[in-house]
């Protein structure tokens, strides 16, 4: 239909959807709405008024949508996203949307419409609990990560996959926005002026920055498994009995704890934000308790499922040495804490804030929640090497908010 790349208008997206084989009948009455609310891409929701059939067309723009054309960005992220979704579908097909079609010329993917789900971040802001979430996310993490790692794959095949998912431009965004810019006076930063003192104390904390430098190096060099790469609560869609992980355009081979840490960070951001959101005090306490219990269950579910996969599949004599899998899981727990710490702080100080905090008014109340997020983030990084179990991680959050600790 198009000879070279062009960003589609709503009208062009409708014609394009019409032309997709086997999707819509010739007499379909297609209605289209651009629903993209992320930082990067166009997302068209196209529905046939007659049959009720629908599809999502996601198209990469040659720049970062949130900043504009002054921030050029690779269209290859669209290939990475389509391939990562297909890779995940091999292991956890019920936890990702189906990819119907990928068009490399237009950097466009036709994806299953999940409009009966909502973005998890929005659900959490409203104080909604999702009973299936911990079970589903722990399965997603254990299976997508184990099955793409050296613990499962033939070493040759694993290295081929590393090559397939080389994603330098998207990684550079994370390297800058998560691991460097928030910790000095960078132009990309944007934070509430009321928390300047807390931010400057981070900029002046050499011990903290030294640890962040180690975490950045791990992100850049440790090709442990194929990560989602941006697994925040805006990349997860939910309804009561279903969880779907979307948007893996930052996928690459990196340290497992980066994906686990992304989820934990965003649940903890919700936790601090609910100190301010307008739920009644009783409901708020119960919801915050649920958030921490969910973080713990995601970890324990991940650990149990990872161990089961390990016992079933690992054959290498040296890796079967007693205690080795325990060492790996302990390192992942500590990485999870460290990466979660960075991911919390970047959302307070750096580019691309999160609605959980942004929606808090007035600025004084928001500043309290933001300061708590910074305190938890720092403690997660600084204390991570002494952690042995997940309740010690969540206790850091309880302590900062002055809640009772887990009984030992
Ligand atoms: N498969 C889908 N079904 C329904 N809505 C979707 C789907 N994928 C994305 N969306 C909507 O589009 C928004 C942006 O999508 P996302 O993949 O996060 O884009 P970006 O990469 O720009 O962040 C999501 O917040 C969600 O509301
Ligand atoms: C300039 S990209 C900023 C930020 O946006 C991405 O998130 P999303 O695509 O889900 O909106 C990612 O977290 C990047 O760090």
TrEMBL record:
Keywords: Amino-acid biosynthesis, ATP-binding, Kinase, Methionine biosynthesis, Nucleotide-binding, Transferase. GO terms for molecular function: ATP binding; S-methyl-5-thioribose kinase activity. It catalyses: 5-(methylsulfanyl)-D-ribose + ATP = 5-(methylsulfanyl)-alpha-D-ribose 1-phosphate + ADP + H(+). ATP binds at residues 41, 58, 112-114, 247-249. Coiled coil: none annotated. The keyword Kinase applies. Substrate binds at residues 230, 346. Its EC number is 2.7.1.100. One of its GO terms (biological process) is L-methionine salvage from methylthioadenosine. Pfam families: APH. Pathway: Amino-acid biosynthesis; L-methionine biosynthesis via salvage pathway; S-methyl-5-thio-alpha-D-ribose 1-phosphate from S-methyl-5'-thioadenosine (hydrolase route): step 2/2. Residues 33-264 form the Aminoglycoside phosphotransferase domain. Catalyzes the phosphorylation of methylthioribose into methylthioribose-1-phosphate. HAMAP family: Salvage_MtnK. Belongs to the methylthioribose kinase family. Homodimer. This is Methylthioribose kinase.
